Automatic annotation (TrEMBL):
GO terms for cellular component: cytoplasm. This is Nicotinate-nucleotide pyrophosphorylase [carboxylating]. GO terms for molecular function: nicotinate-nucleotide diphosphorylase (carboxylating) activity. SUPFAM superfamilies: Nicotinate/Quinolinate PRTase C-terminal domain-like, Nicotinate/Quinolinate PRTase N-terminal domain-like. Its EC number is 2.4.2.19. It comes from the Archaea. It comes from Methanospirillum hungatei JF-1 (strain ATCC 27890 / DSM 864 / NBRC 100397 / JF-1). Pathway: Cofactor biosynthesis; NAD(+) biosynthesis; nicotinate D-ribonucleotide from quinolinate: step 1/1. It catalyses: nicotinate beta-D-ribonucleotide + CO2 + diphosphate = quinolinate + 5-phospho-alpha-D-ribose 1-diphosphate + 2 H(+). GO terms for biological process: NAD+ biosynthetic process; quinolinate catabolic process.
Length: 298
């Protein structure tokens, strides 16, 4: 199997923890009252093998969770590739064998999960490559605006593709939007707002969203650690970056809103330290073939 890893720290993808309940739920959702077809065909006692094979170039993701599904169903798992592995058409992702009925229980669920997650991983990597071509030190961050109920898969896929989470939820960052400031006196009172927040939470950085050069400069002068420019043009972002860094050379400049593979390089070139986007979460799934064969014994 000719594969290569896109990142040397695949263990970091393990930060996304899937509980045993998560794995059980995946099976339960597709098997609420048994497999009627397998039961009626009387497949009990028959043995088989399953191999998942890439149909297109892809970056594998959630193979570890698929392996756990297979084992839950009682299959014996052979070789499998780690999340973050780049595959070519014809490469195998997972091989397993066991009861034919067990294979049919997890076949579609395991394949669909890997296809969904690998699609996101591949699109993330597409964005990362486009941005890093212009700025090798830039970070590509995925927002928390992924489809509901798929947070763990979406975040794991994001990381497998070389991206990082922007926010895993509301609890882990201080990101002040214009909508927050509507209740605190607007951008004009931002200095005292930031001062108050820093007094309460000294160890955290504060990110301020801005929509114009004026708002960005107010944020920089008020002590923001980062300015997140929302849906600005490349030209405006470049001007904001230069003027904000003149105020604070260490300020982090974030480009957000409608970031995709066609403009990632432009924002990277315009001075962005971080690109924030949801674009990767709506990628078409990867294409995987399942090869299922009967075997006499093993």
């Amino acid at each position: 199997m000719d594969t290569c890893n896109i990142t040397p720290k695949l263990n970091e993808i393990g930060m996304i923890y899937f509980t045993e309940a998560d794995i059980d739920r995946l099976i339960e959702d597709d098997l609420p009252a048994g497999d009627m077809t397998t039961f009626l065909l009387d497949l009990a006692g028959k043995k088989g093998s399953i191999a998942l094979i890439a149909r297109n170039e892809m970056i594998a993701c959630c193979t570890e969770e698929a392996v756990r599904l297979y084992k839950k169903a009682g299959l014996e798992v052979g070789d499998f590739v780690a999340s973050g592995t780049r595959l070519q058409p014809g490469d195998r992702l997972i091989e397993a064998k066991g009861e034919a009925s067990a294979i049919h229980i997890i076949w579609r669920t395991g394949s669909a999960m890997i296809e969904f997650a690998s699609g996101i991983a591949g699109r993330t990597n597409q964005l990362v490559m486009a941005a890093k071509k212009e700025n090798p030190s830039i970070s590509v961050a995925g927002t928390r605006k992924h489809p509901p109920f798929v947070k763990k898969m979406a975040l794991k896929a994001l990381m497998a593709g070389g991206g990082v989470p922007h926010r895993t939820g509301l609890s882990d960052t201080i990101l002040i939007f214009r909508e927050h400031l509507l209740f605190t006196g607007g951008y004009e009172r931002l200095p005292e707002v930031i001062r108050s927040v820093k007094e309460k939470m000294k160890e955290r950085k504060i990110v301020i969203e801005a929509h114009s050069l004026k708002e960005a400069l107010i944020a920089a002068k008020s002590g923001a650690d980062a300015v997140q420019m929302d849906k600005s043009t490349q030209e405006i972002f470049s001007e904001c970056s230069g003027k904000c860094r003149a105020i604070n050379p260490n300020i982090c400049m974030i480009a957000a809103g409608a970031i995709n593979d066609s403009n990632a390089g432009m924002y990277a070139k315009a001075g962005a330290d971080v690109l924030v986007t949801s674009w990767m979460y709506f990628a078409p799934p990867a294409d995987i073939m399942a090869e299922i064969l009967p075997i006499d014994e093993y």
